[in-house]
């Protein structure tokens, strides 16, 4: 790990911070992708969702792109992918890490969740891992979202 509190552990593969499963007092630090990497597409994607602009997400996919989201339905092509994203109106997930390997990017995400004890405040928790495959044109060829066990699959975070 890096020595400074917000120094990436390995800047060559993307930023990732000291890991935790939940953050009770403040949001976790936001990771940033390596410039000119496949993770730049993942970053654009998560920023659209967080800005409640999910209906624009299909434009980040290749014409023949594939999306497998919560519920394990396979969406093929921008028109089908738009069916899913036109119904998404929430977000706010924070990238915890971007792990870049050539045309692939793995992104870990934290999202706001209710506390286990109703008398305690809500907190951020690890909610999903997204696996992107990105073409040479920078468009998403395939995105698979893995929801953390115990997370609400009806709540959509990127």
Q: Would you write up a description of this structure?
A:
Helices cover 13% and strands 32% of the residues. Strands 1, 2, 3, 4, 5, 6 and 7 form a seven-stranded mixed sheet that branches. Strand 2 (61-68) and strand 3 (74-76) form a beta hairpin. It is globular and about 45 Å long. The chain has one domain (22-147): Nuclear Transport Factor 2, Chain: A (Roll), CATH 3.10.450.50. The chain has helices at 39-50, 77-85, and strands at 22-23, 61-68, 74-76, 94-101, 104-113, 123-134, 140-147. The protein is built from two helices and seven strands; from the N terminus they run E-H-E-E-H-E-E-E-E.
- The quaternary organization reads as single chain
Main sheet record: 7 strands, mixed
The number of distinct β-strands equals: 7
Spell out the helices and strands N to C: EHEEHEEEE
Point out poorly predicted stretches: 1-6, 153-158
Question: What's the CATH topology label?
Answer: Nuclear Transport Factor 2, Chain: A
Strand content: 25-35%
Name of the CATH architecture: Roll
Shape: globular
Name of the CATH class: Alpha Beta
Q: So how many helices? A: 2
What Rg do the Cα atoms give?
15 Å
- Distance, first to last CA: 26 Å
Helix fraction, binned, reads 10-25%
Structural class of the secondary structure composition? alpha+beta
- Could you say how many structural domains there are in total? 1
Mean pLDDT: 81
